[in-house]
Design brief:
The chain has about 600 residues and is α/β, with parallel strands linked by helices. Helix content is about 25%, strand content about 35%. The protein has 4 domains: about 100 residues, no CATH class; about 140 residues, 3-Layer(aba) Sandwich (Rossmann fold), CATH 3.40.50.410; about 80 residues, Immunoglobulin-like; about 180 residues, Rossmann fold. Pfam families: BatA, DUF7406, DUF7407, DUF7408, VWA_2.
Amino acid sequence: MVLDEFFLFPLGLVALLGVVPLIVLYFLRPEPTRRVLPTFRFLAESAGRSATNPLFDRLLRSLLLLIQLLAIVALVASLATPYVLVPESETVSETVVVLDTSASMAVQDGGGTRFDRALGAARDEVTGTTSIVAAGSTADVVVRRGSGTDARAALDGLGVTAVPGDLRTAITTATTIAGEDSRIVVLSDFADDSPWEEAVREARARGLVVELRQFAGGGANNVGIVDRQFSGTNVTVTVKNYGDSPTRRSLSLAGATEQVELDAGGVATATLPVPPGGGQVQLSPGDGFPTDDRLYVAAPEDASIDVLVLTNDENRYLTAALSVIPEVSLTVDNPPTSVSSSYDVVIYSNVNPGRLLRGNVDAGRAVLADGGGVAIQAQEETPNYGDLLLVAPERIGTTPTVRSVEEHDVTRDITFPPPTEYVVGDLRDGESLVTATDGTSLVAISDRGDGRIVYYGFIEEQSAFKFNYQYPVFWKRTVFYLAGRSTLTELNRPTGGSLGVSPNQTVETPTGPASGPEIRLDDAGFYRVGDERFAASLLSESESDVVAPSLTDEAAPDDFPTRVEERLVPDPLTEWVVFVALGITFLELVYLRQRGDL
């Protein structure tokens, strides 16, 4: 608005409407009593003949009204706060605070943690212009050149995380956002294996003052969980002793307990069964760094996947690959048969077309309706699977070449050799994951309601893939995909990563609800996405090594860098306008006195 260039609060000019009642009252006041004086009658008649608008002539001749209007305008103008821009010099001290929020800052130190002490020091380092960089697995710029109030409010919202730290990236980020003549204050335990010293040297080479403040109390003789591996329904936990003397620890999960003996600096493992629904592995006795004393384990409530293979000529390679999957409960049956039990997955393999009952196909449809999956293996003579068959068979082709393999959980990092013979046909529905050069799909998938379908287009007798070590891997992934299950490895993640979910989907995290499409795994604990539960735990040998060398050659500078900034600031004129209004009011009183009204 144009008025913003003259008034700080232009809305105050609305009070000018107060002049309307004054003018109305002036027009409505009673006319004075007229007396006819013959002596001056000719003067009045002459004046009346020359007047063009007696009403407005009267208004212009009213000096009192004009004085009152000027007084009101002056008072209203003072409410709108008129101003002028004047130059101002200000001494600026700009600080960039790098606050370490990585997992090792949770080490108990006296009555609090390292992070508690660092946070208190960060508040003391805030100046008039302050930037805040949180140093976790990534460098988050929380405030950029904000006021002291903004910086302290941002610090109040920070907390220690359970992620491995990357101090070098944080210091580099601070150097990037720092203005000329700034200082960088790094508050950390410096228990970080990243080459942060290089970032400090680069910042100082730019002429920036870099101050390092170390908070490294506590954490001696730490013993922590540094890794885990899943095999079937078991988890193997790796524990490391960072102390200088042997020790013994116990690992417990849902009532199962294992003892481990650890030499100084030694590593030991223990294998525990994963209960349905998962649980929490506890390392005891604990120590001053509780974050790596716990391992969160997520698992399905029903660990078993019931698989039915319908076949009249059992594919031993297929059934062998399925039988070695610990989670799979395998049933092999021969059509014509009555399928009475409920299954999570039905696989049709080498079925005699004349012996396949309609009820056998309906059993697959029922599994799909319940949220399960159906897989169909290609064969030279294709039975009538109806809408369950994703590829419309046309003929038998020979010696194809694999054109493309799509990136998918089922086919990722698997090399598919071309078969000697295959079923040529067009894809009716779904998505092709493995495609031959003629466009025929060799592996295809499709979603059907809550269920899933997989088409395996390799004729087993004419394919060498069954001899490949990746063949069981492919079928394990396929069974888990068809059943709508995630493997234990997929359900359990290290902190510092992220979960991809639908946009705006709400996810329950250890610290409260969060929205997608990406959920950062900054906190150890359980994350619930819909009906599925994930777990995140600290798994880092370097982060569990919480004792860092002391910084003996670092000292705070005697003088903080400052600079002088010139800027234009508004100078309010309210008091001068008020004096003008008072002067006009005094002039009104003088006029009334002179006119004899007072």
